[in-house]
Specification:
71% helix; two-stranded antiparallel sheet; Ammonium transporter fold; 15 helices
């Protein structure tokens, strides 16, 4: 009896604490973000990997697959070691305007019971990890078929620490852009502008591929590209709708507008090719889809269906002309069109978020004008500031990092190695052995 006297209160306290813990975690939110995390990782491997692999020449198909796979592994560890704490710092610690505190290096302040809102902190960390994985992987398209594998690994590691993580903090981690009121729901600035700008800077620093502009360099396997594009489309629902960090009406609307924008971007790009060249292309329709997805990303939490249609159609047309301008007018060999699709799309979508934002996401809402012209102008100023700061910072730091890596280990393979192909030169393997 005496033992029960002391045991009973302990059991009651334990049950009470368990119930309280269960109440703090929202099961629906947790289940949805678990699913979203898997979807975003699915975007990189196999989605982006196959999309890019089909676009390069046959002698470089394995090199692109290897780069995306290796980045998935390496960026995960860099995020674990230092990226996450730069971006989000320690839970419950007041954050600085430019960088998070270093109290969460190696997830030091994270336990099984740690929460981030209504979901486990560990889940939030790995969800954000998938964003940190795909962003450097997107940059691969800017220097495809000519960068050393070792240089790619070193550059991507430094870039994640010095570019992606700080910008992520500025926008989502309590930094100055988020505090200004910048609307970037799922990564127009954090993901697409940073990746697009880094890709075009890399293309400029490294120079074009041998034969660029004089030798045809068509995709070697559009079947792979279409398969990867389909995976990107599906995975993007986790990317955008998952950014609500809840299973709620905001996530549902984000999924709807994401799908509409992708469909409109595809059809708009297809129509432009059909009008200008007489035939619609498979490459064009899938590229338009990616443009529509990238452009709706920053606005997916603040626009309605009608706004999403306008954004998607605009993305298909504007990114189409941007791609032709970069390659044909400026003669920049951004190998897989990362800047005109992701960079321009991210800029366009971030600005559109200021025009079409609405608190009432009905069928014809999200036109921005219900809040008045002054409100639109003010928000556009904030959005433009976010675009400008992200663009300039990314360009400068990326340029410095590329020059540093070039001095340390060299950026580019030799001319003969490039001619032979990176699959054999860097990995001693062939993509196909028929």
């Amino acid at each position: 009896m005496r033992a029960l006297k002391y045991l009973l209160p302990a059991v009651v306290a334990l049950l009470a604490s368990t119930a309280a813990s269960a109440d703090d975690i929202n099961g629906a939110d947790t289940a949805w973000i678990l699913t979203s995390t898997a979807l975003v990782l699915f975007m990189t491997i196999p989605g982006l990997s196959l999309f890019y692999a089909g676009l390069v020449r046959v002698k470089n198909v394995l090199s692109v697959l290897m780069q995306c796979f290796a980045l998935t592994c390496l960026m995960s560890l860099v995020w674990f070691a230092v990226g996450y704490t730069i971006a989000f710092g320690s839970d419950g610690v007041e954050q600085g305007a430019f960088i998070g505190d270093f109290g969460n290096m190696f997830f030091a302040s994270m336990s099984i019971d740690s929460l981030n809102g209504s979901i486990p902190a560990s889940l939030f960390a790995i969800f954000q990890m998938t964003f940190a994985i795909i962003t450097p992987a997107l940059i691969v398209g800017g220097f495809a078929e000519r960068m050393r594998f070792s240089a790619m690994l070193l550059f991507s590691t430094l870039w994640l620490i010095l570019v992606y993580s700080p910008v992520c903090h500025w926008v989502w981690g309590g930094g100055f852009l988020g505090n200004m009121g910048l609307q970037d729901f799922a990564g127009g600035t954090v993901v697409h502008i940073t990746a697009g700008v880094a890709a075009v800077v890399a293309a400029l620093v490294m120079g074009p591929r041998r034969g660029f502009g004089t030798v045809a360099m068509p995709p070697h396997n559009l079947t792979l590209t279409v398969a990867g594009a389909g995976m990107l489309w599906v995975g993007w629902f986790g990317f955008n709708a998952g950014s609500a960090v809840a299973a709620d009406n905001s996530a549902a609307m984000a999924m709807l507008v994401t799908h509409l924008s992708a469909a409109c971007g595809s059809l708009a790009w297809m129509a432009m090719e059909w009008i200008r060249h007489g035939k619609p292309s498979v490459l064009g329709i899938v590229t338009g889809m990616v443009a529509g997805l990238g452009t709706i990303t920053p606005a997916s939490g603040s626009v309605g269906p009608a706004g999403a249609v306008v954004i998607g159609l605009s993305a298909g047309v504007i990114c189409y002309f941007a791609t032709n301008f970069i390659k044909n007018a400026l003669k920049i060999d951004d190998s897989l069109d990362v800047f005109p699709v992701h960079g321009v799309g991210g800029i366009l979508g971030t600005l559109f978020a200021g025009v079409f934002c609405s608190q009432q996401l009905g069928i014809f809402s999200g036109n921005g004008f219900s809040d008045g012209i002054d409100s639109i102008a003010g928000q556009l100023g904030v959005q433009a500031t976010g675009v400008g700061v992200t663009f300039v910072y990314t360009a400068i730091v990326t340029f410095i990092l590329l020059k540093l890596v070039d001095v340390v280990i060299g950026l580019r393979v030799g001319d003969d190695e490039e001619t032979q192909g990176l699959d054999l030169v860097l990995h001693d393997e062939r993509g196909y052995d028929l």
